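Dear colleague,

As promised, here are the two records you asked about, laid out in our usual form so they can be pasted straight into your sheet.

NAME FIELD: protein one
SEQUENCE, THEN STRUCTURE:
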Amino acid sequence: DSVRLRLLDAYAACGMDAELREQLRAMLQAEQLPFRGPSAAELLTRYRATVSAESWPQIREELFAGMRNRYTLCDCLLAEGMPERVYQIAKDEERFNVGRYQDALLQIDAPFVLAWHKRRVLRGFEDAYDRKGYRRKTKELAYLLDLPGGKDAVREVADELRARYPRKAALLDELAKAGL
């Protein structure tokens, strides 16, 4: 990875835009970016600098079409000011990590983000089996209080947990301790 990053710098320093563009395209369309390298948004910015402003929209769409990693794609979409496309990907893919892009997605559809968090927290409570696990999941549930509409959602989840698990004293105790 460090060799590829040094190669990018060398191409940029020598004004070899075509070679730089090909290397950047390859990195952005790969499954993973360099571990300690620039972010997808930084690479996209460098790529944009190698093409004309008039041709950028078409080139950008071709680049996005070839991206295999959906999170790299979403990082680039946000860098380009396209949160609606990230939202569409999140809605279309069942196992999408909405929490990673929640700040942008909250502005588009807060109930969608809240519903995703509720499902995640409820699944977590199903997997918890002791007081320590209940405490950890209760803290995650309390996190939802800060989201728009979170108070009602937390109340719904807490009520559902009480109804679903009336005999789990440790769970009920952790909910009470958290004021839920």
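NAME FIELD: protein two
SEQUENCE, THEN STRUCTURE:
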Amino acid sequence: VSGTHQDLPFRHGDISVIRRVDAKGELDKKKRLPMMMGSWLEVRYPHSFPAYIRIMSQGALPEEEVKGYLDANPSLETLGGVGEKFAQKFQVLTNDRSAAASVLTPEVTGKILRLAEACPNTPMLIGFQGEKLHIFLSKRFVAPYIQMKFEITPENTPVDQMPELIQLFQVVDEIYGQMK
């Protein structure tokens, strides 16, 4: 799905990613790690973010991958001071702590926490790079699986498969409001 939301171009869809990296974060064609599948949203803002920021829910990626990523990107460091509740659920990596703190205000982290509450037990990866925001929700899908062996009626049509879509765009809106 693509379009605009509050004049911001976005793309939202389902993706599958086979993670094949070694401990240093480099491609390892021999090693097959679990496939990650889920919903991916990309929003393009009118201005670049002042820092490169990666937010990972605790346990979203194996520790060896995170360590390898940090070893391969020595300019990244963990951001603290994002609030105790947020820090319990997420790890934040950035190349500029003060600039990242200006993006991750209590209002933004609050919206991200509400998104996490709307889809419990869902690993999340969020990235700010250039003028783009990426949000990946593991095991959540925009397009539900529907068996086409029978006639579709209101009684057998699935309920909303992604009720957290509202919270997803509330994160987008909060960030955009701060950029204006």
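A couple of things worth noting about protein two: Residues 165-179 form the longest helix (15 residues). The radius of gyration is 17 Å.

Best,
R.
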